Amino acid sequence: MKLEDIGFYTLSNNRVKQTCLHSPMWRTEILLTDKCNFKCPYCRGVKEELRGDMPIEKVKYVIDIWSKTGLKNIRFSGGEPTLYKGLIEVVKYAKIKGVERIAISTNGSASINLYKKLIEAGVNDISVSLDACCSTFGEKMCGGIKGMWKNVVNNIKELSKLTYVTLGMVFTEETANTVKEVIIFGDSLGVADIRIISAAQSNIMLKQLNEIPKQILSRHPILKYRVDNFTKSKNVRGLSSDDYHKCALVIDDSAIAGNYHFPCIIYLREGGKHIGEIGPDMRRERYEWFKNHNVQYDKICIKNCLDVCVAYNHMYWYYNEGAGLKERLCYDNDFCVLSKTGLIETLKNNDTLYNGVFLDFNGIKELNEKLGYDKTNDTLKDVFTSYKFRRSDIVARYFSGDEFIILAKHNIIELLDRFEKHCFSKNMNFKYKILYDIVTVQDIDKSINVR
Hints:
Layout: H1 13-18, E1 27-31, H2 56-67, E2 73-77, H3 87-96, E3 101-106, H4 112-121, E4 125-129, H5 135-141, H6 148-160, E5 164-171, H7 179-187, E6 193-198, H8 214-219, H9 221-231, H10 249-252, E7 253-257, E8 260-262, H11 265-269, E9 276-277, H12 282-292, H13 299-304, H14 307-320, H15 325-328, H16 340-349, E10 355-362, H17 364-371, H18 373-386, E11 394-398, E12 403-408, H19 412-425, E13 431-438, H20 441-449
Parallel strand pairs: 1-2, 1-7, 2-3, 3-4, 4-5, 5-6
Antiparallel strand pairs: 7-8, 8-9, 10-12, 10-13, 11-12
Helix pairs in contact: 2-3, 16-20, 17-18, 18-19
């Protein structure tokens, strides 16, 4: 199954193939405030050090950092983000910075006029919590505010006509027997998709799902994915011993709250330790966490890792250590990122004599920071495309930092000279040095170990 078939637009096989230290920051979620006007029984809030409103300038600072590496998707959450006074301002700022998808996670209680203003400002994804199908229990979830549940339902109906709207449904032991009714009711509101999950406190297997009408499942790919998993006795939460022991999502997907960045929003909400403080070194810190952290030994990950994250990390394993290595060799027309194993397999399984070098590129990181990932990457592709290198002609392996292995069927020195001249013509500082040639598998081992 392709990741894009699951239904989350942020997940795709192509994203997995690109994931590395210098790939785009695909997604970030910023917890703007811990304030909320509801009292959902399963919500436990956040740690003391993360409470309060994040200053607007700090939110913009995070957007600035990630937009330099090609930030594509952002989600503002809380608490209840519509209680954050600067919400419209930070939404507009994200749009100015070129973020393609701007989402908010809300309880749906704000005025419809505010939601419309947010859409005008740039919001094109609204996730609304809806855990009940009747006003009696619905108003209990709304903190006992009379008439609020009806207001939420009306907002969902109206917003579904205006933009992409999904429902988040959390079920506890008390409400597990209402799953079918709530899903059918949610579908009737005209939403794009429905996400079901059990509360972290109970993590129960949801029943009645085999009774969901097929026409409803056909309209909602995320719901269908979850229902299929449940019917196979696979819960939304939790790792099995067979699952990949690393979390590749942390490389290009981040959660921000207070002064810190966390592995993911689940890790944050479950009280896990942050990776580090907000700042320009966040990406490298996240990459180091990925390399050194075994999620199979992490109690939060073992219990709470979501099914879609497990699927993503399995796909990362597939393309970096599994049978998908050969496919990854050809995933991009011009420039491929491979693991050490992938390079060795290339040498072993191809009769072609490659020209190979281990290079240190000076300036790639600075170009990313100055121009943004997309423009720097376009320059790389432009050079390779200009000289008509075919898919199988060149492969490369990123190291942390600006070090590469390059294998090619052409004269590499000539290629790099052209590349340097091309960058110079665009007033872009670019230099490289050849550390040594690569002609054997042992040379690849040497280049890996020299760091």
